Amino acid sequence: MHLHDHLLQHLREEMPTWLAEFQPPSRLSLDDFLSSRVVFYPGCGTDGHAVKEFGSAHAAHCFVYADYLHSEEDILGQFSRPNRCFRGYKIVVNCELPVTQFGPEGWPVERIKPFARFIILEREPNLDDDWGARRLCILFLGVDAFAAYYHLFCKTERPPFAILLEDHGYGGNHDVFGAGGQLERIATEANVFPQWLLVAENTTGWNGFGKVDGVAPGVGGMHNRQRFLHKRKPLRLTAPENQNQPYVTD
């Protein structure tokens, strides 16, 4: 089964009510956003693959794109290009947020001016549900992705629904996103994990996750790499030697 079909059949959700009913000039709520299914893409660049897979399958409607190597102008410029990364959608809401809302000043961002921007996309009227969700909400962050994960998900104790992991080699990130890297360590220390990972073929998935059998990978990113769906394994309970003590997880 192809990745898209698996997501569509097993993980499809209704659009969050707040997103379906949102109308300008109402103010977007970060609390509403984080209460929804959120797909996190660290080191995303201008790759729309996370939205393509989860959004087209109606498996998630909210996304966080975090990258400290692409400026706000780079991101917004994508929407004016013919082959833009979010084809079939138009911007209906575009609002700037204080970047300090997502962590303290002085994040390790050197190449760009840090930014935070909420964008709601609406599907073009000539397209239907087979193309993708009617609306999507994306939080674009020009910040350090590791800090973003901690401040958005760990401090709020609201884990993302899924994370797209790809280590880009000499792409400029100061640590890997895959197994053994800083992102996994942050999630482990806070015990805040997603249910799903979408893991590129050149990247090692996190401990405690396993590749979903029978699901063909999606292909995306700058190098058109295969990306495989991984699911978090259920915790195994071990009976302690002292039966008066509660069970512990290993």
Overview of the molecule:
This protein has 250 residues and is of the alpha/beta class. It has one domain. It is 20% helix and 24% strand. The protein is built from seven helices and twelve strands. The chain has helices at 3-10, 17-21, 30-34, 49-56, 72-77, 145-154, 182-190; strands spanning 38-42, 62-66, 89-96, 116-123, 135-141, 162-165, 196-200, 209-211, 218-220, 225-232, 237-238, 248-249. Strands 1, 2, 3, 4, 5, 6, 7, 8, 9 and 10 form a ten-stranded mixed beta sheet that branches. Strands 11-12 form a two-stranded antiparallel ribbon. Helix 7 links the parallel strand 6 (162-165) and strand 7 (196-200). It starts with a helix and ends with a strand. Mean pLDDT is 87; it is low at 245-250.
Unreliable spans are: 245-250
* Major sheet size, sense and barrel closure: 10 strands, mixed
Order of helices and strands: HHHEHEHEEEHEHEEEEEE
Helix/sheet category: alpha/beta
**Could you say which overall geometry the principal axes of the C-alpha atoms support?**
globular
Count of beta strands: 12
Number of H/I helices: 7
Radius of gyration: 18 Å
How many domains comprise the coordinates? Answer: 1
Overview in brief:
This protein is 20% helix and 24% strand. With 250 residues, it is of the alpha/beta class.
What order do the helices and strands come in, and which of them pair?
Blueprint: H1 3-10, H2 17-21, H3 30-34, E1 38-42, H4 49-56, E2 62-66, H5 72-77, E3 89-96, E4 116-123, E5 135-141, H6 145-154, E6 162-165, H7 182-190, E7 196-200, E8 209-211, E9 218-220, E10 225-232, E11 237-238, E12 248-249
Parallel strand pairs: 1-2, 1-6, 2-5, 6-7
Antiparallel strand pairs: 3-4, 4-5, 7-10, 8-10, 9-10, 11-12
